[in-house]
Design brief:
heterodimer, A: 295 residues, mainly alpha, MetI-like fold, globular, B: 264 residues
C-alpha cells in the first residue's frame, strides 16, 4: 500500500509539471492558431463565444494564409535546405573523426572524447560570435587570404548564407560526432580485418561493412542536427544577411514585429506537425518495440 | 603506415577546426585597441572594464541564480521520470508520459519559447498570475526543457545497473523507500550530479527561450551579450568569452568525470 503511494508520487509530480507547463502551452499555440485575428490586445478573438448562445468561433484562415504565401513557404523551404546542407557537412567532417576516435586505444579515445565535448560545453552564443570575428572584412581569414595572394582585396565573407552554414556546422558538429561515436564504438573492429582478409579493398570495406553498420548512428546524429537547425534563429541573425530568409526569423518577426499572434502560432504549430511529430511517434514506437523484445 | 598518417591528419584538422575560433576569441580579448580586429598590443584593459560593467555583472548574477534553481528543480523531476520509466511498470498513458518527457529534446527552442510566452499571457488573463514576466517565468521555462535532459541521463544509468542489488536489499528486509534512499540513489548519485551540471549549463546558455519569457528586471547574461554583439563586435564581450569559456570548460570536465564514474 505504501509502495503504491510512493510510486504515484514519483510518477505524478513530473507528470503534473509537464502537463501544466509543456502540454498546455502547446495546446494554447494550437488554440491561438485557429483563432480569428483582430486588432486589439490580445490580437485574436476567443474561440468560444457566449453572446447569443454558445458559438464556436474558429478558423483555418491562418493556415491558409501562411501556406498560400510564398514568403512563408519559401522561408520554410530555405530552412529545410539549410538544415540538409549543414547536416551533410557535419556528417562529412564528423564521421571520419568519430570513426578514428572509436578505433583508437582507450587512452587516446578518452582524451579525444573530452576534446570534442569541451567546445560543446562552452557558450553557444560566444562560439557563433567567434565566427563573426574570424569572418570580418579585416578579420583573420581575410588577412591570411590576402597574404597568400589568393585574393587582392578583402572578401565579404560575413552576412551571407555561407557564413550561416559555417556557423551551424561549427556549433552543431559535436552533436553529430557523439551519437556516431556511440554506435561506432559498439561494433567489432575485427569485422574490418575480416573483410580485408576476404579480399575487399579499403573502398569496398567502407561501403559494404562500415557504413551499413553505422546507419543507426548516422540517423541519430543527423536528427540531432537537422531538427534544431530548421528552427535556428540566432546563427542566421548573427552571421546571415538579407539574401535568405529562414523559418526562425519569420516566426520571430510575425510575432514580435507584425504582432500577428494567430499567424505566428500557425507557423509554430505547422513546424511541430511537420518536423517534430513524426520523430516523436517513431521514438515512442521504437522504445515500446525494444522493450517488448527484450523482456 | 599510410593509414596512420591519414588518421593523424584527420584528427588534427578536426580539432583545429573545433578550437581555432575559441583561441581567436581569447587571443583578441587581450587586445588593447577598442577596434576588436586591429591589434594594438597586449592589455588587460577589457577585463578591467568588464568587471566594472554593472549591466553585465548584474545579468551574470541573475543568470547564475536562475540556472542553479532551475537545474535543481529539473534534476528532482528528471530523476523521478528516469526512475519511473525504468522501474515502475504501471504508468497511466505511458506513451503520453514518454511524449511529454522526450519532446522538449527535439522541439526547436523558438517554438518552445513562443508557447511558454503565450501560456503565461493566457494564464494571466484567466487567473491574474503571473502579472508580469521576469525571473520566475524564465525559471519555469528552463525547468520544463531541462527535465528531459536529466531524465535521459538517469534513464540510461538505471537501465545499465543491476536490478539484483535492489532485489537483494529487499529480500534482506529493506522496504521500498529504504531501498531507494539507501541503495538506488547513492549508486546513481554521480549521474544525478552530471544531470544537474548539464541542466545548469543549458539554462545558463539559453538565449531564445529566455528572450520570449523575460520581463522587467530579468535580463540574463545571453540576452545582454546578444544585444551587444548582434550588430557588431564588442571588446568587453571578448573578455567575457575568455572567462566564461574557461569556467564552462571546468564544469564540462566535472560533468565528464561524474558521468563516466558510474561506468567503471
Amino acid at each position: 500500500m505504501k509502495n503504491k503511494l510512493f510510486e504515484k508520487y514519483f510518477v505524478f509530480s513530473p507528470y503534473f509539471w509537464l502537463v501544466l507547463f509543456f502540454f498546455i502551452p502547446l495546446a494554447i499555440i494550437f488554440k491561438i492558431s485557429i483563432s480569428v485575428s483582430e486588432w486589439g490586445m490580445p490580437p485574436y478573438q476567443d474561440i468560444f463565444l457566449f453572446e447569443d448562445g454558445f458559438k464556436i468561433n474558429t478558423t483555418f484562415e491562418n493556415y491558409v494564409y501562411i501556406f498560400s504565401d510564398y514568403y512563408y513557404i519559401g522561408s520554410f523551404v530555405n530552412s529545410l535546405i539549410l538544415a540538409l546542407i549543414s547536416t551533410f557537412f557535419c556528417l562529412l567532417i564528423g564521421f571520419p573523426l568519430a570513426f578514428y576516435i572509436a578505433t583508437s586505444n582507450t587512452r587516446l579515445r578518452n582524451i579525444l572524447l573530452v576534446l570534442v565535448v569541451i567546445p560543446f560545453w562552452s557558450s553557444f552564443l560566444l562560439r557563433v560570435y567567434a565566427w563573426k570575428i574570424i569572418l570580418q572584412n579585416n578579420g583573420i581569414l581575410n588577412v591570411i587570404l590576402l597574404n597568400l595572394g589568393i585574393t587582392s582585396e578583402p572578401l565579404q565573407l560575413l552576412y551571407n548564407q555561407y557564413a550561416v552554414i559555417m556557423g551551424i556546422v561549427y556549433t552543431y558538429l559535436p552533436l553529430m560526432i557523439l551519437p556516431l561515436y556511440g554506435y561506432l564504438n559498439k561494433f567489432d573492429l575485427n569485422l574490418i580485418e575480416a573483410s580485408k582478409d576476404l579480399g575487399l579493398n579499403r573502398f569496398k570495406t567502407f561501403f559494404k561493412v562500415i557504413l551499413p553498420l553505422s546507419v543507426p548512428g548516422i540517423v541519430a546524429g543527423s536528427l540531432l542536427v537537422f531538427i534544431p537547425v530548421v528552427g535556428e534563429f540566432i546563427i542566421p541573425e548573427m552571421l546571415g544577411g538579407s539574401d535568405r530568409l529562414y523559418y526562425g526569423k519569420i516566426l520571430w518577426e510575425e510575432f514580435f514585429v507584425n504582432r500577428n499572434w494567430p499567424g505566428a502560432s500557425a507557423l509554430a504549430f505547422s513546424g511541430i506537425i511537420i518536423l517534430v511529430l513524426p520523430i516523436v511517434i517513431f521514438q515512442i514506437l521504437y522504445s515500446r518495440w525494444s522493450q517488448k523484445n527484450e523482456i | 603506415m599510410k593509414s596512420s598518417v591519414i588518421k593523424s591528419t584527420v584528427i588534427f584538422l578536426s580539432l583545429f577546426f573545433l578550437y581555432f575560433p575559441i583561441l581567436v576569441l581569447i587571443f583578441y580579448s587581450f587586445n588593447e585597441n577598442k577596434r576588436v580586429m586591429v591589434w594594438k598590443g597586449f592589455s588587460l584593459r577589457w577585463y578591467n572594464e568588464l568587471f566594472n560593467n554593472e549591466q553585465i555583472i548584474e545579468a551574470f548574477i541573475i543568470s547564475i541564480k536562475i540556472a542553479a534553481l532551475s537545474a535543481t528543480f529539473a534534476t528532482i523531476l528528471g530523476v523521478m521520470i528516469g526512475y519511473s520509466l525504468v522501474r515502475i511498470r504501471k504508468i497511466p498513458f505511458k506513451s503520453f508520459y514518454i511524449f511529454l518527457s522526450s519532446t522538449p529534446l527535439v522541439l526547436p527552442e523558438l517554438i518552445l519559447g513562443l508557447s511558454m510566452l503565450l501560456f503565461f499571457i493566457s494564464l494571466n488573463n484567466v487567473i491574474g498570475f503571473p502579472s508580469s514576466r521576469g525571473q520566475l517565468t524564465i525559471f519555469i521555462s528552463h525547468v520544463t526543457f531541462c527535465i528531459a535532459f536529466v531524465a535521459i541521463i538517469i534513464q540510461a544509468r538505471l537501465t545499465d545497473f543491476n536490478k539484483n542489488i535492489e532485489e537483494a536489499a529487499m529480500d534482506l528486509g529493506y522496504n521500498y523507500t529504504k531501498v531507494l534512499y539507501k541503495i538506488t540513489l547513492p549508486i546513481i548519485l554521480p549521474s544525478i550530479i552530471a544531470g544537474w551540471l548539464l541542466a545548469f549549463t543549458i539554462s545558463l546558455d539559453d538565449l531564445v527561450v529566455a528572450s520570449f519569457t523575460t520581463g522587467p528586471g530579468a535580463n540574463t547574461l545571453p540576452i545582454v551579450v546578444f544585444s551587444k554583439v548582434r550588430l557588431g563586435l564588442s571588446p568587453e564581450v571578448n573578455a567575457l568569452s575568455a572567462i566564461l569559456m574557461f569556467a564552462l570548460v571546468i564544469i564540462g570536465l566535472f560533468y565528464f568525470y561524474f558521468n563516466k564514474k558510474f561506468k567503471h
